[in-house]
Amino acid sequence: MNILLLGSGGREHALAWKIAASPLLTKLWCAPGNAGIAREAVCVPLDIANHAAVIEFCKVNRIDFVVVGPEAPLAAGIVDDLAQAGIKAFGPSKAAAQLEGSKGFTKDLCKANNIPTAAYRRFTEAEAAKAYIRSKGAPIVVKADGLAAGKGVVVAMTLDEAEAAVDMMLSGGFGAAGAEAVVEEFLTGEEASFFVLCDGEHALPLATAQDHKRAFDGDKGPNTGGMGAYSPAPVMTDAIWTRAMNEIIQPTLRAMRANGTPYKGVLFAGLMITAEGPKLIEYNVRFGDPETQAILVRLKSDLAEIFQAISETRLGELEINWSNDSSACVVLAARGYPARPEIGSVIDGLSLVQESEDIAVFHAATSRGPNGDWLTAGGRVLGVTATGENLEVALSKCYRTVAGIHWSGMHYRRDIGRTADHGPAPAG
Ligand code: AMP
Fold first, then answer.
1. Alpha carbons 310 and 160: distance in angstroms, whole number
2. Distance from the CA of 114 to the CA of which of 14, 163, 347, 386 falls in 20 to 30 A?
3. 282 CB under 6 A from ligand 1?
4. 141, 213, 284: residue to mutate for ligand 1 pocket, most atoms within 8 A of CB
């Protein structure tokens, strides 16, 4: 099978690494990829927003299958366009990608199907939103309806903050993504990410993970794309796992089928495990980054075979095998990330890292200098990922590997996985 992977981050490096191990693979391309992904795939400088160019590339290079990493091309309908050209792809259609592309769409779907989530209202007028906020009180959460690169959520601890967020969003602070705002109840509990594979008919829970969104130790500093993750998530006990499937995932998939827009791909549910049980915070219609790095090092099954089965609606026949190990991923970021990351620093020690069956360094943003040096090329640069018989062992392998890597301004969190209680083994 010839496979084209779209994307360029640490998530895509982990996907490329796993796909490259498949006996079904003839050749793997990645567009645009990065210098680390180039170890697993032939990287091509295609503009993935240009669907016609992607289709042309697939035809010329006899691509059998396209794997879409990030959400933007999914929301723009790349899977529909590829299907029209007769090319199979992993990911939801444009209509099904609304589960991430419109928070209002998802909240209405939850309400209509009794799916537990925060109480909410949708607004296009600032005054009405503010009146609702004042009637509910703080803390309260204000969200831009559309895709805002992970920045469209304000968890407001005061009324002033919430009202300022409404003004910012509804006056164009997030462009078209913020033309509508969702104001919702503040939920308390522990968060977990739950990944489920779907082929439109069947759902196969994949694994659980927890990530660390804030830039600095102790959950301090600004929100980031994610500074680390670990899998499985101890908070997802068997009972919570079953409730999440029965109360959240299955009703969503039934509703999508009933709407004539069956969901195919990976459904990533951000959950809050509250005192009343799991509630949906949000859906993403693609793999998480860096959760994917932590999850794929535990996956024993062939990922290319799984993707193929999903595109052929054969997920029901498949059994997925996992290692019993735990895993962790520690993200190494550049000085200034997330606001203004410094790029172009020489990374020392990377070529000396001994990667093995239980340690992998996934590249999120690297390039090669003229004399072969590894250089930083973005905010999140590397994801040092390891497995071990328990989380502590996995974490100590990660941090031992991190100690051998250095560049000027490199920073990372030293408390990845610390929030996990190391109690009884959870599901997934
Ligand atoms: P989202 O982009 O929707 O995942 O939101 C980003 C983060 O905001 C989540 O990971 C939560 O930590 C927080 N958040 C979102 N919605 C809520 C809510 N209703 N209650 C409390 N925290 C929330």
1. 47
2. 163
3. yes
4. 141
